[in-house]
Amino acid sequence: MPFGNYKTLGEALGALQIRETTEAFVEPTPVALSDYFRSELEITLRDFDVSCSEFAVCENLLFPVLREAIKAHTSVLGVWSHVSLSHGDKLLGSPDYTIARRSPLSARVMGTPLAMIMEAKKNDFDAGWGQCLAAMRAVQDVNGEPGRVVYGCATDGFTWRFGKLVGQTFAHHPQDYSLTRLDELFGALHHVLELCKRQVLTPAAAA
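The chain above was modelled as a monomer; its predicted structure follows.
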């Protein structure tokens, strides 16, 4: 069924027959953040209701942070907001954000392979991970290579949690990252995006 219909992580794990485990795979690396970005984020948090809805979380917190983090990786990676994923004639659903290889055709064209799915959920990480995992599994079909790693992130804009799917095994990174510890969060994002870049640059396995 479309991945947006999964209400909990347990529901997605059972329906998709995916095994859950824990693996520490995120290794934050130092990143220099601009004073301009810090100032704009401070204004956003001070003067706007940033979490009144999932759309507000996406627009006020998730995309600005993601946009800043991916700047160093745009020679290889692109980010697409609320773009539907399909496999053949089957519509799979629309993740909040998809990170994939940049197409040489245009910034408008989502390249393959797809590397990461990000889901924003207002105070409901169980539903967020259920939908994120189902989308990650769908990406395996889109890529046509189940052996590739697909990364995922569930966030309410303030707390960020990472996972990865390899074959039929889903691994949580055991540590959360917080918007209140901005440098650590960006260090984690930088490392995960480096993993995504490495993944999309890996040649496809021979058939």
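The helical segments are 9-16, 35-47, 54-70, 125-143, 182-201.
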